[in-house]
Amino acid sequence: MLDRPHPTPEAPTMDPFVLAKALSGQHFIGGRYVPARSGKTFPVVNPATGDEVARAAEGDAADVEAAVEDAARAQKEWAKTPARKRGALVAQCAAILRAHVEELGRLIALETGKALRTESRVEANTVADILEFFGGLGGELKGETVPFAPEVLSVTVREPLGVVGAIIPWNVPMLLMALKVAPALVAGNSVVVKSAEEAPLAVLRICELMNRVLPAGVFNMVSGFGPECGAPLVAHPKVRKVTFTGSVETGKIVYRTAAEKLIPVTLELGGKSPMIVFADCDFEKTLAGALTSMRFTRQGQSCTAASRIYVERPIFQRFVDAMAERVDKMVMGDPLDEKTDIGTIISEGQFEKVSGFIEEGRATAGANGRACSAMPTDPALRKGLFIQPHIFTGLDKESRLVREEIFGPVTCIFPFDDAESVLEEANDSEYGLAASLWTNNLKVALNLAHKLEAGLVQVNQNLVVQANLSYGGVKSSGLGKEASLEAMLEHFTHKKTIMVNMG
Ligand code: ADP
Ligand code: MG
After folding, report:
1. What's phi and psi for 152, nearest 5 deg?
2. Fewer Cβ within 10 Å of end Cβ, the chain: N or C?
3. 489: enclosing H helix or E strand
4. Which part of the chain is the Aldehyde dehydrogenase domain (predicted)?
5. pTM for this prediction
6. What separation in Å is there between the alpha carbon of 48 and the centre of ligand 1?
7. Which CATH homologous superfamily contains domain 16-269+478-497?
8. What local confidence, expressed as pLDDT, does residue 131 receive?
9. Which residues form the pocket of ligand 1, taking CB atoms under 6 Å from any ligand atom?
10. How far apart are CA 92 and CA 202, in angstroms?
11. Which residues are annotated as catalytic?
12. Phi–psi pair at 197, nearest 5 degrees
């Protein structure tokens, strides 16, 4: 339980600039804020202006060591807490977060550049929803009785794994953290989160808020860079499970280290998700669906972004034109302004990367890239990392824009002639995270849904991850599932068999 006084205000704080400053320079270990042992910090930048708004503790192996040791100590008692009681505490955390939704939405908008109305506030609400969902699952940590022999009672019990290391990215850090922390805790594990260097603040505040309810040491957080802070967390001998969301490249490094220790991992990596539109679709609904599918309000910074759109030839041109027209109407601007639909790219590094893809597309002979939405004109935003959404047509299937995850507001649209050929194209990808189908022909939809290589296929909708529905990809998109009861049972517990000979 958290003891005051703390650097952060107890009440919801609506000024994100004030809260960002108060959260500066801290990890959260053993139930309290602590600075990095080295004393080092690094800047947290508002991508809408380029201004430094806070500094984050720059963690290294020494901080990881402290956090894991505290987590290991706390986990022993936590595991003895009845499962439903653990769940009730996580549900209590959800109630606290509900009271802080506005605060958290503003803070995440400030540090990530995601628009408050369309993205950041939504994310904060979803976090509370995920905690509520998992909070109710304590009683589901059931085992089985196994028929072995009449005189031998054979049962299985679900036991926690121990200390879980959770590494998260910057695109939806609060939500992705909740998908890891909530099931891990309810299952009786303790957790050390390594936040993303680009967005360490809102998740740190959540850690503090949850520590008002949880016993000290069961939920800890360190901030810092991947190799210096993430790698020692994965490698720590007392970390008995790693759950990671991020790039394929880093996911492979994490997996290799985990293999040395023979510990289980969950990996949620990239995507290049196809959206397949048939001529018989509900045109208006599908158009609106294309905008949300491409996650334009998140600047396309989503693993499930519909970055390859296949449209049946008879409606191809009409669809492309109508989509561009719709995106044009979206407002780019200050993430904290309620009028804004589209905010900024997270960092200069990503800005360069995404811009590189766009330049390459523009330079491709035969390709057409339409830049949509007006750039903001407010002089206060002149250093903001704004990129106009781009809709490309005429690209070659082998183009880097079609094969690689751009993680920006860039989509490629292709015409297709029949279900068989579009299926082949859709599956011709290293990735297999999500896919969506838009048609009123149930037979076609079900047939393709079965044959698409993806962890999640949606027909006539394309929602982001939802509590209670297993989420996770195939191929290079990752290993394991998140967000569901199955995910909690399979990825945060092991099954012990106990046999009692009564003969
Ligand atoms: P990005 O391209 O956004 O940097 P990453 O996969 O590199 O995506 O980052 C996702 C998370 O993984 C971040 O929290 C980052 O700090 C962390 N990370 C990066 N490199 C490593 C590493 N070698 N070991 C552990 N974590 C890492
Ligand atoms: Mg990286």
Report:
1. -120, 115
2. C
3. helix 485-492
4. 34-498
5. 0.98
6. 23
7. Aldehyde Dehydrogenase; Chain A, domain 1 (3.40.605.10)
8. 98
9. 167-169, 194, 196-197, 225-227, 230-231, 234, 246-247, 250, 253-254
10. 19
11. 268
12. -60, -25
- Using CA positions, which residue lies closest to atom 15 of ligand 1? 226
Structural domain boundaries in the chain: 16-269+478-497, 274-466
- DSSP secondary structure string for all residues of 78-131: HHHS-HHHHHHHHHHHHHHHHHTHHHHHHHHHHHH---IIIIIHHHHHHHHHHH
Distance CA 423, CA 440 (A): 17
Domains 16-269+478-497 and 274-466 share a fold: no
pLDDT, residue 7, reads 86
Find out whether 125 and 150 touch, Cβ atoms under 8 Å.
Answer: no
Q: 5: cis peptide before it, omega within 30°?
A: yes
Report which ligand 1 atom has the smallest distance to the Cα of 169. Answer: 10
pLDDT at site 239: 99
Report the C-alpha gap between 383 and 376 in whole angstroms. 11
- Kind and range of the H or E run holding 369: strand 368-371
Residue 23 in contact with residue 193, Cβ under 8 Å? no
Q: Which of 58, 167, 348, 406 to mutate to test the pocket of ligand 1 (most atoms within 8 A of CB)?
A: 167
Q: Which amino acid is at 17?
A: F
Residue 212 main-chain phi, psi, to 5 deg: -70, -20
Our CA dihedral for 169, 174, 180, 183, rounded to 10 degrees, sits at: -170
Alpha carbons within 13 angstroms on the beta-carbon side of residue 427 total: 12
CA distances to 51, 111, 120, 284, 350 from 54, rounded to whole Å, are 9, 9, 19, 43, 20
Question: Which pairing describes strands 368-371 and 390-393: parallel, antiparallel, or unpaired?
Answer: antiparallel
pLDDT tens digits, the chain, 503 residues: what are they? 566 667 899 999 999 999 999 999 999 999 999 999 999 999 999 999 999 999 999 999 999 999 999 999 999 999 999 999 999 999 999 999 999 999 999 999 999 999 999 999 999 999 999 999 999 999 999 999 999 999 999 999 999 999 999 999 999 999 999 999 999 999 999 999 999 999 999 999 999 999 999 999 999 999 999 999 999 999 999 999 999 999 999 999 999 999 999 999 999 999 999 999 999 999 999 999 999 999 999 999 999 999 999 999 999 999 999 999 999 999 999 999 999 999 999 999 999 999 999 999 999 999 999 999 999 999 999 999 999 999 999 999 999 999 999 999 999 999 999 999 999 999 999 999 999 999 999 999 999 999 999 999 999 999 999 999 999 999 999 999 999 999 999 999 999 999 999 99
Q: How far is the CA of 338 from the centre of ligand 1 (A)?
A: 31
Residues 6+ apart with CB under 8 A from 317: none
CATH architecture designation of domain 274-466: 3-Layer(aba) Sandwich (3.40)
